[in-house]
Fold this protein.
Amino acid sequence: MVDDSPLLLVLELVGIFVFALSGGLVAVRKQFDIFGVLVLAGATGLGGGFLRDVLIDATPPTALADWRYLLVPVAAGLATFSFHPALGRMERQVTILDAAGLGLFCVTGALKALDHGLGPVPAALMGMVTGIGGGMVRDLLAGRVPVVFSSELYATPALAGATWAVIAHQAGWALWLVALPGVLLCFGWRVLAMVRNWRAPMPGGPASV
Amino acid sequence: MVDDSPLLLVLELVGIFVFALSGGLVAVRKQFDIFGVLVLAGATGLGGGFLRDVLIDATPPTALADWRYLLVPVAAGLATFSFHPALGRMERQVTILDAAGLGLFCVTGALKALDHGLGPVPAALMGMVTGIGGGMVRDLLAGRVPVVFSSELYATPALAGATWAVIAHQAGWALWLVALPGVLLCFGWRVLAMVRNWRAPMPGGPASV
Amino acid sequence: MVDDSPLLLVLELVGIFVFALSGGLVAVRKQFDIFGVLVLAGATGLGGGFLRDVLIDATPPTALADWRYLLVPVAAGLATFSFHPALGRMERQVTILDAAGLGLFCVTGALKALDHGLGPVPAALMGMVTGIGGGMVRDLLAGRVPVVFSSELYATPALAGATWAVIAHQAGWALWLVALPGVLLCFGWRVLAMVRNWRAPMPGGPASV
């Protein structure tokens, strides 16, 4: 179902592209050379899907069997390398696209996990992992603590979007009713959290340990 | 055999719980928000088993097919988040529980690897990886050099416990004779190493390079 | 084909050995104890192959089914631990051996990926990942930004060697014509880049973001 929908394919490639852009921008800031930019763009764009496919035993990952999945992060990496000052000024737009990618990946990740026989709870978790995995790989490789751990809301919207997709899919609804509200739920929550500077609860009391 | 034993299941869940506690405490110290605490608790509790299952091709990992495996680290993460000052004062106890988790994971990891057709030497190594993997994932994600590399004895007891389990299993002994001495060997060695401050040999000579 | 060739087996073990040496040297510099040296040597020598095997679904990885693959990094780790001042003085030679390992792994990795049904482009990429993966694992575990991202040419020669192997294999040439020029292309390019201090292009303009 996921693999057969041209709409979902296009949206997934868009998600890979914007995630790869964010990876390329981090590489530029770290003063990596062109190959470092390409590798980090690729790892960010494809990392979440790789992680998901390895865990649900859908290997080799789609990205290795379909050249379009490889071309997209290369294009994003080259774009970052060439136009990074302009992209830097567009950081706000990139962040919003990143939220769109997060929304899309959490939904497609959850649906792919269901297709491979996982139960509802693990499938929702896999959706979240697909969404946040690319950014975690990016930050690990670049020597930063993953942004998902810092105080901006990131993983919760992804889990919410994935949960919607799982519930709607289990109810047997049409694909657009499964995917669209899930994407929008995650995207909207994430963007609102950024705009309004919402924060998840922090540990109370003194950091005694 | 491993999967059929209710005793081993309970002990494995206990191991996941105490590892997840240690991950949650690290997250609290790093001032992550609640979701960061949950993600790091989950990655620490389940990381070693995921690594093992992906390498021995037992995918999807048990933790994704059985909701109890997911519930346990969530409970540990919430407990850490809520009670972390008390847990911090209990650090000694947590460290001892962590040694118990290490002992258990090295044994169940080795037995699961044998069940999946690995030879004795790789199975013992997989047992060690299962034991030390969760802590390595925790430290990588938190931006620390993995504790297994520092001077306290950590990996050696895990390898010893796993080796015992492999040898006893190959000899065809009863499960409790396979598991219990292996767990105790690893646990006892690790606790003694901490109490007596034993250290593994360090590279001799000047750190010339 | 790859698995059947005794020449390739020997060369692959040599590659594992020299990569493991480089991992052991990093561990010594970081003042890890003997077990840290062994773990980091093993992760560096076997990491690239593990990553490849997990992604192309060739699990359990060869290294877990064949004790020679495990013995080699242990020997390299012990050698590093015992002789590290001498090895430190031999750093230039080790770096050149590392380039040889890179050349070999990119070729054998690409051929193994083709054997497992990947298309030409993903297979070449897998060859590159096999070559650069061990060093990335080493640097992540040791808390360094992976050397592949810094300004020395590293990933490009690996991709070039892998690409040669894929093209020659698709053309149906004899194994030595597939492997040897690929290894030499990567090795020679990497060594020349080091000797002449070639650098890949850096992002232009101010690092504005």
In short: Chain C touches chain B through 36 residues (CB under 8 Å). Residues 91-115 of chain C form the longest helix (25 residues). Helices of chain C lie at 6-29, 34-55, 62-65, 67-89, 91-115, 120-141, 155-170, 175-195.
